[in-house]
Amino acid sequence: xxxxxxxxxxxxxxxxxxxxxxxxxxxxxxxxxxxxxxxxxxxxxxxxxxxxxxxxxxxxxxxxxxxxxxxxxxxxxxxxxxxxxxxxxxxxxxxxxxxxxxxxxxxxxxxxxxxxxxxxxxxxxxxxxxxxxxxxxxxxxxxxxxxxxxxxxxxxxxxxxxxxxxxxxxxxxxxxxxxxxxxxxxxxxxxxxxxxxxxxxxxxxxxxxxxxxxxxxxxxxxxxxxxxxxxxxxxxxxxxxxxxxxxxxxxxxxxxxxxxxxxxxxxxxxxxxxxxxxxxxxxxxxxxxxxxxxxxxxxxxxxxxxxxxxxxxxxxxxxxxxxxxxxxxxxxxxxxxxxxxxxxxxxxxxxxxxxxxxxxxxxxxxxxxxxxxxxxxxxxxxxxxxxxxxxxxxxxxxxxxxxxxxxxxxxxxxxxxxxxxxxxxxxxxxxxxxxxxxxxxxxxxxxxxxxxxxxxxxxxxxxxxxxxxxxxxxxxxxxxxxxxxxxxxxxxxxxxxxxxxxxxxx
Length: 506
Known about the structure:
Blueprint (H helix, E strand, L loop, with lengths): L1 H51 L2 E7 L7 H4 L2 H20 L10 E8 L1 H10 L8 H12 L3 E5 L6 H14 L4 E7 L7 H5 L5 H4 L2 E5 L5 H4 L5 E3 L20 E3 L33 H5 L40 H5 L29 E4 L15 H14 L4 H6 L18 H12 L46 E4 L3 E4 L2 H9 L3
Parallel strand pairs: 1-2, 1-4, 2-3, 4-5, 5-6
Antiparallel strand pairs: 7-10, 8-9, 9-10
Helix pairs in contact: 3-5, 12-14
């Protein structure tokens, strides 16, 4: 009996243990069910949020993807229409590719360097003035609440950096149903896209937009490629002027002349005429800076008829007065070579006044970015500045065109002083004053006689309210590399020679 009683007690103990375990399992199961229900509710809520606020975004490299000419030419109105057209094209293109695209918000972000882009568009004739790009961008951004055309400032990589970071942000956003990536002209973005070409979930949400033909590497990624030819240019912008094989050549395809108000090279930005400012052209230092075809002349009155073998028996021939093709033998002979050893000095003079030297001829100068440059002016005489100031105080403003260029289209009806023209030193003082006034055409001015300033004279200017706005050049951008004469000849300037000209104040 004792044995049976002990067995019963053991079994009852085991039963209690099993009951406790069973109760624990029921409690655990109920707890997990509660947590699972809570998690599912949160998941459904999160999913609902992503479905409630879906959007598609277009990311555009505005430095390479350019709006059509007809839109840009209309300024603000064109910007508004471009935004409307782009909104409509995106919605129609993604129809069938994105579920419920009609419920998706459409965002567009365009990043560009406004300073360089506006200047380029102006130089190729797509804008009437560089400032029109700001009007276009402002209207584009205002037309749609989630459209933005952003100026990222100067710097080659700034737009690239913005675009890459924006892509990285949106590609992992589940609410983003599609990314239209418009930068297929630049292979620098390939690494950002290549990592997703085998990711079906992410890759299905990427669409490539081409304006000019996409680089072939983009087509190997497998993403859909679309285009909006009614909105973006299918052809790249015209490039810089072609390099010239000769130091001085006539421009065969030049425009019809400076007098008609446009450039011999439609893709070049002109800069300020260096017309031997003031009386500089008349000084010996200016005439000494003759072109390579100018042979030496000095004061012993012996004349060379042959540049390789001096001759003392001949005077300058009548051919000196006949213009010859640059670089030809006849052109070389049009300048006489006279040597002088009077005392310890010798100097070169030009005895053929019918053909001015390169430093005396009107010309427009370019830097390496085809931007018009204002050549440095000789320092103004302090006394002459005082005399000019006194005349202005006594008689009012003088006519700049009359006193500096000896021409005024208003003639006797001019509202400013004419009278006796200013002397050479006063003219230089006045030229300094006019140079401080910004030309409304900026670095795109094509008037060879323009007396206004085309860029800030201070290479270190940091003033936010500077009159010259974006027109600030520093470093080698202030170095001329080419000049175009009024007869449409183009001359390349070697860096060393240009540096010497700058140091001599030419």
